[in-house]
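Q: Got a minute? One more chain.
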Amino acid sequence: MPEYPLCKNRFYRLCRAVFFWCTALSFSLLAVCSIVVTAYFPEDYTEIPFLSFSAMPWVALGCGAVCAAGVWLAKCLHHVPPFALKLATCLCVFAVSAIWAWFNGAAPEADRAMVCNGASNLLAGDYSLLRPLAYYSQFPYQLGTTLWAALLAQLFGMGHHFFAFEVCNALFAALLTWFLLGITQLLTESHAALTACAALCIATFPTALFSTFIYGTLASAACCAGAVYYAMQAVRGGRWRHYLAACCLMALAILAKPNSAVFLVGLGLLYALAALRQRKARPLAGLALTVSLCLAASEAMLLGMEAVSGFDLHSGEPFTAWIAMGLQEGPLGPGWFNQYNDILYVLHQGDGAAITAEAWEMIKARCLTFVQSPGYAAHFFGLKTLTQWCEPTYASFWASCSALLDNLAPAAIRAFYAGPMHHAAVFAADVVQALTYSGAAAALWLRRRSWSAEALIPAVIVFGGFVFHTFWEAKSLYIWSYAVMMIPYAAAGLPAAYSAVAKRLRARRACAQE
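A: Always. Here it is, folded:
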């Protein structure tokens, strides 16, 4: 494994210990839960997650079979150059994503439809969706994706911009794969680990299914992974071009999806620890540049749209309303969407101060309930965690389905949404998820003495996402961008676990022969 210079600073070592225990314990918990529990959506595609315990032995058996196949694959690809392996993997992900988008025929619905309508309205000079109490007044963070959709519509025409957006999503899926492979190379020099990462990236098929999702999900995930990759390069080599690349990608990720701020916090920890270890100001300058550009990009977008439309876009839904909703029961599941923030926004006519005050009262009331009823709190947060992190498709089928699917998609595509083919796909995703979580946990424990604090940052970001969505609105779709960040660790852990088991078996055989 590539090593960082040893740091004797006590605070640095304390941070490393905290990072390790938080990530190792949370990854181990997720690994156990993913093997024992499977969350799934009904085939009528109402967004109501259910839990099943019946697939546990089959998932364990599937994991064993896949690991055996992985050992064979690693031996077959042992002599393939790393660049060729990475390029082939990215091309495969792009091809599958683009083919799925071409034949799927799903039309945007719900928020995705609003984004597309907003793009067409902007091109026509209609700013009605930006007026007070309208869609973008409540959700101004959707403007980044809307402007991207408007640009594609301007370039390719209104009749073709859906597919243009989907092809761009396929490119982002390939770019995400490239950066995950790059992070794997920064964590370990093992060719077997790179091969395992390539296999996991291809096997995590929800990435390809998201190509039809007219949203900032894929763009944000790709830019976040790229920011992490270049930031790790920057603190290792100290080159400004890496700092600048991480800075620009992080700003783009924030524009695509503000929840990417969790990754920004991770980059802040990385730069701060690098400055502490190196005793240099360059990482802190990189951090200041990144934060400044992220804030400036978001503010410039809002100010520009305010200047064009004449409407105030700085009074959107307060974050406290999302937290209050994330602590409530709902018709979909604990902490899942229940229209609380929409009702609150209309009730107070978009008054941010009044919404914040009432949301805080709700948060205090829910926290008091949890303190007074620990059993209920454990049940609530346990179900919220399981329905998010143990749903192996990450709502990718739900996100890529629409009412027009039956009329436009070929039978081979429709078969993935219901029936035996759908159940097989969900089972395969369940096995891949269990392997990813288990491999990531194994990597942390097997190399617990050699991980530097900087090398643990991608895992810390996943832990940050775990904590964030424990309190924020719940949705398994939101978890996907963190789950894929576990792939580099899983790629390092699975070969290491195989080597450790094989070594012990050889030792036992040697003892038995003696």
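A: The first strand starts at residue 38 and ends at 40.
Q: Perfect, thanks.
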